[in-house]
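Input chain follows. Return C-alpha coordinates only.
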Amino acid sequence: MKILKETKSKLGNKIELVGEECYKPILIIGVFHGDEPQGDFLIKEYLKSNQNSKMIFIPCLNPDGMKLNQRQNSNGVDLNRNFPTKNWKITEDKTFFGGNKPNSEIETQFMVNVIAEYNPKLILSLHAPFCTVNFDGDALQYAEKISEIIDYPVQEDIGYPTPGSFGTYCGVERNIPTITLELDENIDVKRLIKPVHKIFDYINSVI
Protein backbone atom coordinates (compact mmCIF):
# COMPACT_ATOMS: atom_id res chain seq x y z
CA MET A 1 0.00 0.00 0.00
CA LYS A 2 1.21 3.46 -0.86
CA ILE A 3 1.12 6.50 1.38
CA LEU A 4 -1.14 8.76 -0.64
CA LYS A 5 -1.19 11.72 1.71
CA GLU A 6 0.26 12.46 5.13
CA THR A 7 0.68 15.12 7.76
CA LYS A 8 1.85 15.35 11.35
CA SER A 9 -0.20 16.07 14.44
CA LYS A 10 0.59 18.77 16.98
CA LEU A 11 2.68 16.24 18.92
CA GLY A 12 4.52 15.12 15.79
CA ASN A 13 2.66 11.86 15.19
CA LYS A 14 1.99 10.76 11.61
CA ILE A 15 -1.50 10.84 10.13
CA GLU A 16 -1.53 8.86 6.90
CA LEU A 17 -3.91 8.11 4.05
CA VAL A 18 -2.86 4.79 2.52
CA GLY A 19 -4.02 2.71 -0.42
CA GLU A 20 -3.88 2.72 -4.19
CA GLU A 21 -4.87 5.62 -6.38
CA CYS A 22 -8.33 5.03 -7.85
CA TYR A 23 -11.34 7.00 -9.04
CA LYS A 24 -13.95 7.75 -6.35
CA PRO A 25 -12.66 5.24 -3.80
CA ILE A 26 -14.26 3.94 -0.64
CA LEU A 27 -12.73 5.64 2.40
CA ILE A 28 -12.32 3.84 5.72
CA ILE A 29 -11.25 5.76 8.83
CA GLY A 30 -10.10 4.65 12.27
CA VAL A 31 -9.65 6.49 15.58
CA PHE A 32 -11.61 9.71 15.32
CA HIS A 33 -11.59 9.49 19.11
CA GLY A 34 -8.37 8.54 20.84
CA ASP A 35 -10.07 6.34 23.40
CA GLU A 36 -11.59 4.24 20.58
CA PRO A 37 -8.44 2.55 19.19
CA GLN A 38 -10.11 -0.50 17.64
CA GLY A 39 -10.11 0.93 14.12
CA ASP A 40 -6.35 1.35 13.96
CA PHE A 41 -5.77 -2.31 14.85
CA LEU A 42 -8.49 -3.66 12.54
CA ILE A 43 -7.40 -1.62 9.53
CA LYS A 44 -3.73 -2.49 9.93
CA GLU A 45 -4.57 -6.19 10.31
CA TYR A 46 -6.62 -6.03 7.12
CA LEU A 47 -3.84 -4.34 5.17
CA LYS A 48 -1.40 -7.13 6.02
CA SER A 49 -3.12 -9.41 3.52
CA ASN A 50 -5.27 -7.10 1.38
CA GLN A 51 -3.25 -4.80 -0.81
CA ASN A 52 -5.39 -4.35 -3.92
CA SER A 53 -8.80 -2.81 -3.53
CA LYS A 54 -11.00 0.17 -4.31
CA MET A 55 -10.56 1.32 -0.72
CA ILE A 56 -8.28 3.90 0.84
CA PHE A 57 -7.62 4.02 4.58
CA ILE A 58 -6.76 6.41 7.40
CA PRO A 59 -5.87 3.89 10.13
CA CYS A 60 -5.58 6.54 12.84
CA LEU A 61 -6.90 10.07 12.42
CA ASN A 62 -6.21 11.05 16.03
CA PRO A 63 -2.80 9.61 17.04
CA ASP A 64 -2.27 12.19 19.78
CA GLY A 65 -5.56 11.30 21.43
CA MET A 66 -4.77 7.60 21.12
CA LYS A 67 -1.39 8.05 22.82
CA LEU A 68 -3.01 10.15 25.54
CA ASN A 69 -5.94 7.71 25.81
CA GLN A 70 -8.48 10.50 25.52
CA ARG A 71 -11.41 11.19 23.25
CA GLN A 72 -10.14 14.57 22.07
CA ASN A 73 -6.94 15.50 20.25
CA SER A 74 -4.00 17.11 22.05
CA ASN A 75 -5.76 20.51 21.92
CA GLY A 76 -8.74 19.07 23.78
CA VAL A 77 -10.97 19.21 20.69
CA ASP A 78 -13.46 16.49 19.77
CA LEU A 79 -12.67 16.05 16.08
CA ASN A 80 -16.17 14.77 15.41
CA ARG A 81 -17.55 18.19 16.38
CA ASN A 82 -14.98 20.31 14.52
CA PHE A 83 -16.16 20.02 10.92
CA PRO A 84 -17.34 23.16 9.08
CA THR A 85 -21.02 22.25 8.92
CA LYS A 86 -24.01 24.55 8.82
CA ASN A 87 -24.91 23.47 12.36
CA TRP A 88 -21.45 23.90 13.92
CA LYS A 89 -21.45 25.86 17.17
CA ILE A 90 -19.23 26.38 20.18
CA THR A 91 -20.10 23.86 22.87
CA GLU A 92 -19.59 24.29 26.59
CA ASP A 93 -19.22 20.57 27.31
CA LYS A 94 -15.49 19.79 27.39
CA THR A 95 -16.10 16.18 26.39
CA PHE A 96 -17.66 17.24 23.09
CA PHE A 97 -15.84 20.57 22.67
CA GLY A 98 -15.73 21.33 18.94
CA GLY A 99 -13.04 23.99 19.06
CA ASN A 100 -13.26 27.76 19.04
CA LYS A 101 -13.96 27.70 15.31
CA PRO A 102 -14.78 24.99 12.77
CA ASN A 103 -11.98 23.19 10.91
CA SER A 104 -9.44 24.55 13.38
CA GLU A 105 -7.55 21.29 13.91
CA ILE A 106 -4.76 19.67 11.89
CA GLU A 107 -6.67 16.40 11.85
CA THR A 108 -9.91 17.97 10.66
CA GLN A 109 -8.11 19.95 7.96
CA PHE A 110 -6.43 16.76 6.76
CA MET A 111 -9.81 15.02 6.59
CA VAL A 112 -11.48 17.93 4.75
CA ASN A 113 -8.65 17.95 2.20
CA VAL A 114 -8.91 14.19 1.66
CA ILE A 115 -12.66 14.47 1.01
CA ALA A 116 -12.13 17.31 -1.46
CA GLU A 117 -9.27 15.60 -3.28
CA TYR A 118 -10.58 12.02 -3.47
CA ASN A 119 -14.37 12.54 -3.52
CA PRO A 120 -15.12 9.10 -2.06
CA LYS A 121 -18.28 7.26 -3.09
CA LEU A 122 -18.75 5.75 0.37
CA ILE A 123 -17.22 6.41 3.80
CA LEU A 124 -17.01 4.01 6.70
CA SER A 125 -15.66 5.23 10.04
CA LEU A 126 -14.96 2.91 12.96
CA HIS A 127 -15.98 4.04 16.43
CA ALA A 128 -16.98 2.50 19.79
CA PRO A 129 -18.78 1.56 22.04
CA PHE A 130 -22.50 1.57 21.11
CA CYS A 131 -22.74 -1.62 18.97
CA THR A 132 -24.81 0.08 16.26
CA VAL A 133 -24.63 0.85 12.56
CA ASN A 134 -25.34 4.57 12.24
CA PHE A 135 -25.59 6.25 8.84
CA ASP A 136 -25.91 9.65 7.20
CA GLY A 137 -27.04 10.33 3.65
CA ASP A 138 -28.12 7.65 1.17
CA ALA A 139 -26.49 4.72 2.98
CA LEU A 140 -29.40 2.69 4.35
CA GLN A 141 -28.93 -0.29 2.03
CA TYR A 142 -25.26 -0.58 2.99
CA ALA A 143 -26.02 -0.10 6.66
CA GLU A 144 -28.59 -2.90 6.56
CA LYS A 145 -26.12 -5.34 5.00
CA ILE A 146 -23.40 -4.37 7.49
CA SER A 147 -25.97 -4.91 10.25
CA GLU A 148 -26.54 -8.46 8.97
CA ILE A 149 -22.81 -9.19 8.97
CA ILE A 150 -22.00 -7.93 12.47
CA ASP A 151 -25.42 -8.36 14.10
CA TYR A 152 -25.74 -4.78 15.33
CA PRO A 153 -28.95 -2.76 14.83
CA VAL A 154 -29.18 0.02 12.27
CA GLN A 155 -29.67 3.40 13.91
CA GLU A 156 -30.16 6.52 11.79
CA ASP A 157 -30.37 8.89 14.76
CA ILE A 158 -27.66 8.45 17.41
CA GLY A 159 -29.99 10.02 19.97
CA TYR A 160 -28.33 13.34 20.79
CA PRO A 161 -27.23 16.51 18.92
CA THR A 162 -23.94 16.31 17.03
CA PRO A 163 -23.13 19.82 15.71
CA GLY A 164 -20.07 19.88 13.47
CA SER A 165 -20.03 16.11 13.00
CA PHE A 166 -18.28 14.28 10.20
CA GLY A 167 -21.50 12.48 9.29
CA THR A 168 -23.29 15.78 8.78
CA TYR A 169 -20.36 17.24 6.84
CA CYS A 170 -20.11 14.31 4.41
CA GLY A 171 -23.40 12.43 4.48
CA VAL A 172 -25.90 15.27 4.83
CA GLU A 173 -24.19 18.28 3.26
CA ARG A 174 -22.13 16.54 0.54
CA ASN A 175 -24.40 13.60 -0.24
CA ILE A 176 -21.66 11.02 0.32
CA PRO A 177 -23.11 7.85 1.88
CA THR A 178 -21.48 7.77 5.31
CA ILE A 179 -21.60 4.93 7.82
CA THR A 180 -20.45 5.12 11.42
CA LEU A 181 -19.86 1.62 12.74
CA GLU A 182 -19.95 1.66 16.54
CA LEU A 183 -18.01 -1.39 17.73
CA ASP A 184 -18.24 -3.31 20.99
CA GLU A 185 -15.44 -2.13 23.32
CA ASN A 186 -16.14 -4.81 25.91
CA ILE A 187 -14.71 -7.71 23.92
CA ASP A 188 -11.21 -8.53 22.77
CA VAL A 189 -10.62 -6.58 19.56
CA LYS A 190 -9.33 -9.77 17.91
CA ARG A 191 -12.90 -11.08 18.01
CA LEU A 192 -13.88 -8.19 15.74
CA ILE A 193 -11.39 -9.09 13.01
CA LYS A 194 -13.64 -11.59 11.22
CA PRO A 195 -16.87 -9.52 11.04
CA VAL A 196 -15.16 -6.19 10.37
CA HIS A 197 -12.93 -7.60 7.64
CA LYS A 198 -16.00 -9.24 6.11
CA ILE A 199 -17.60 -5.79 6.07
CA PHE A 200 -14.54 -4.36 4.31
CA ASP A 201 -14.71 -7.14 1.72
CA TYR A 202 -18.44 -6.56 1.24
CA ILE A 203 -18.20 -2.85 0.52
CA ASN A 204 -15.16 -3.41 -1.70
CA SER A 205 -17.09 -5.95 -3.78
CA VAL A 206 -20.44 -4.20 -4.26
CA ILE A 207 -19.69 -0.50 -4.49
